[in-house]
Amino acid sequence: MSLADTVTTAAQNLWALTFGDGIEAPERTPSTVLFDAPHRELRRYDGAGAEDPAVLLVPPLAAPAFCFDLRPDQSLARFLLESGRAPYLVDYGDITFDDRHMGFEAWIDDILPEAIRQVSADRGGRPVDLVGWSIGGTLALLTAAADQTLPIRSVTAVGAPLSYDHMVGARELRTLARIDGGRTATAAIRAVGGVSSRLTRIAYRATAWDRELKRPFFIASNLTDTATLARMETIDRFQNALPGYPGRFYNQLWGRFILNNDIGKGVVRLGDREIALADITQPVLLVGGPNDAITAAAAVEHGTTTLTGSAEVRYETAPGSHLGILIARDTTWTYLDKFLRDLS
What we know:
By secondary structure, this protein is of the alpha/beta class. The protein contains 14 helices and 12 strands. Helix 3 crosses helix 4 (about 135-145) and helix 6 (about 185-190) packs antiparallel against helix 10.
């Protein structure tokens, strides 16, 4: 590239990042909406064959559903299509103050079971493979445990926290909570109706504080590398779209998961009800990230000790951040492809 071309490219990229519309417009994998209702939009990605097995992608609450389809080369949905599967996505949409009464039960007993049944029906009644990321993986496992009559063939959980004893900061939070039994935090969350999207975004960025500090130097060093800046912009777009948590859901997460570590003990208590991970009989794939600053790899691996009823539990590791392990083609996607092929 000539000096003139270098200067021109750098100027164009700088303008795009500051005053323009961005380096690269989002390019989502084409899909069709099969069902549209609040917090349960169901999409089928276009291009699958009639006999291709169904995979339902289960996002966490505090992340946009397009986490599975960030860009063409970072799209698990597109990878599944290319590997001969029919991917579907359930999208919870925005979480607002009006949703403050929604708890874990809304997902475990209603939203996810309905999506699973609809996907199965769309595939002629065949069972569905679930793939969840972060707490979406936890929700997928709890849904399978809560109702073994659901047409679920397998569950894959990537970066799913399955023991809060192993989560960074959990012990410190418990120490602080002992002062008042955790009531102050619970009351605060209840008063504001949940955890806002703004707070979620701040917390997520804090886990990658070094990236934020290095950002100006990174941009300056890559002003002529349009592809690298486009990937950076994709992550920025993802972070800027993080939604929040409903009040009831977060208070359950705080009390039953963080403080009491129900999930780590293998039995989650919701009111008078108990959901045991040992009730899951389907094969399970767990993927943890040794460099994941949000869900420690040990918190994911702990599932191998609680999923005692499963026909098979595989645990694998992948490099990268919490989001990075989800889009790790050479590790996570390879593990998933082999796991699903072995089931067939």
